[in-house]
């Protein structure tokens, strides 16, 4: 039986999961590869913390010096699970220069530097794989460039952040406020003390950038994604969605058509009958539409120690297979310059909630502004009146985002309108 020595950069939640998975399923993995995987070194920050842990193999050598790994010729594969993009990028580049293949779970790194790193790995005949960078244990990265690569991918749409899905699911199930459910998510460990990366949509934006790069064969990055978070979602919006047969989800959406590519992350109304509407809690799901295969859906745990380690170790196994077949670094990729569709041109129906004076002529004034921009009203309901104010909920037909925003600005300037409380896209799929 062959032997392969690997190193881990980091031993947090995912790194420890890799250690545990190899201990659990080592014989099964060895049988498939005719190769034994040995974790030889692990790069960490605090040596004392890990040397005192009793559930780690004695054979692992911990180090705080990356040179111990890069200078070790026995180590052929390096697994990067640190999370810091800049330091990780430097380490990975050095690995490639020294002929070591790399597996990364670092979505920040891949979203910003994925293409340059893939090109560098090919120049040095090594592999660079990153299945765990999107949706944890769900196999979605490799299908984009392998299982589905006979298709022209037209759309990728998914729930790619467990924290926001947990928050919106609980708001829907219990009628709770955003603030109360966020606090619960933090107490249960689903949300960080500073939840900005999740609730503002940045985490999902990095993931959709990675999938769009692979699925559309286009050079896009995180900076090309238009991002809106869920901070402005109120329980009133959840209630109205339920009444109208929708649920609210934070969706990451990538589309390509003749006009170009659009990349968006935003809260969305989606019909209760759609498969994504039933993805609750901290689970993730991704729907992909190919011009031949039609619609396919990937569903599962988008985070967690062992689910994410499952994706990481799958990449390790794939690299070992390439090594054993002497085809390391031979996988080719194709990218074209991305033609991005202007955000103002992206059209969809919208749900609009506004607070207005409870007075005659308000509906006529609002309707007039929409009509002037050729925006058709699908439905209009006046809700929750008092002597002085009322809440108006409007569904408008498919309209360009630029026209919608211009209309809302004019509506908010009306003396009878107190504020636009929310405007949320309706996804018709």
Automatic annotation (TrEMBL):
Species of origin: Megasphaera elsdenii DSM 20460
Pathway(s) the chain acts in: Amino-acid biosynthesis; L-threonine biosynthesis; L-threonine from L-aspartate: step 3/5; Amino-acid biosynthesis; L-methionine biosynthesis via de novo pathway; L-homoserine from L-aspartate: step 3/3
Protein name as catalogued: Homoserine dehydrogenase
Binding residues annotated for NADPH, in chain numbering: 107
Gene Ontology biological process terms in this record: methionine biosynthetic process; threonine biosynthetic process
Cofactors required: a metal cation
Entry binding sites for L-homoserine: 192
Catalytic activity: L-homoserine + NADP(+) = L-aspartate 4-semialdehyde + NADPH + H(+)
């Amino acid at each position: 039986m062959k032997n392969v020595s690997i190193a881990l950069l980091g031993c947090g939640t995912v790194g420890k999961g890799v250690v545990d998975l190899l201990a659990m399923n080592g014989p099964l993995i060895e049988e498939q590869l005719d190769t034994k995987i040995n974790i030889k070194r692990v790069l960490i920050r605090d040596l004392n913390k890990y040397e005192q842990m009793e559930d780690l193999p004695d054979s692992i050598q911990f180090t705080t010096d990356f040179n111990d790994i890069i200078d070790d010729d026995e180590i052929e594969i390096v697994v990067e699970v640190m999370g810091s993009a800049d330091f990780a990028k430097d380490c990975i580049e050095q690995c490639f220069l020294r002929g070591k293949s790399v597996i990364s779970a670092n979505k920040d790194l891949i979203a910003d530097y994925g293409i340059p790193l893939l090109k560098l790995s090919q120049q040095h005949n090594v592999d660079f794989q990153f299945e765990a960078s999107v949706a944890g244990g769900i196999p979605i990265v490799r299908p984009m460039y392998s299982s589905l690569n006979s298709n022209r991918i037209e759309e990728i749409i998914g729930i790619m952040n467990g924290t926001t899905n947990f928050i919106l699911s609980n708001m829907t199930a219990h009628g709770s406020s955003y603030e109360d459910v966020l606090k619960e998510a933090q107490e249960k460990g689903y949300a960080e003390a500073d939840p900005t990366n999740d609730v503002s949509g940045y985490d999902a934006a990095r993931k959709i950038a990675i999938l769009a790069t692979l699925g559309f064969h286009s050079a896009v990055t995180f900076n090309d994604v238009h991002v809106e978070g869920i901070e402005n979602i109120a329980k009133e919006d959840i209630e109205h969605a339920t009444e109208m047969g929708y649920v609210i989800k934070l969706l990451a959406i990538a589309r390509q058509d003749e006009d170009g590519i659009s990349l968006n992350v935003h809260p969305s109304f989606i019909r209760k009958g759609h498969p994504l509407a039933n993805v609750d809690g901290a689970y993730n799901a991704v729907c992909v539409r190919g011009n031949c295969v039609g619609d396919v859906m990937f569903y599962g745990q988008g985070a967690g120690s062992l689910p994410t380690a499952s994706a990481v170790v799958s990449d390790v196994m794939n690299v070992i297979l390439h090594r054993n077949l002497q085809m390391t670094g031979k996988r080719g990729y194709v990218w074209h310059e991305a033609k991005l569709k202007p955000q103002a041109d992206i059209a969809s129906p919208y749900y609009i909630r506004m607070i207005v004076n409870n007075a005659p002529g308000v509906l006529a004034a609002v309707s007039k502004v929409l009509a002037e921009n050729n925006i058709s009203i699908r439905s209009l309901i006046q809700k929750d009146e008092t002597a002085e104010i009322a809440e108006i909920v409007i569904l408008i037909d498919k309209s360009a985002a630029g026209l919608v925003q211009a209309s809302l600005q004019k509506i908010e300037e009306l003396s009878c309108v107190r504020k636009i409380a929310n405007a949320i896209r309706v996804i018709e799929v």
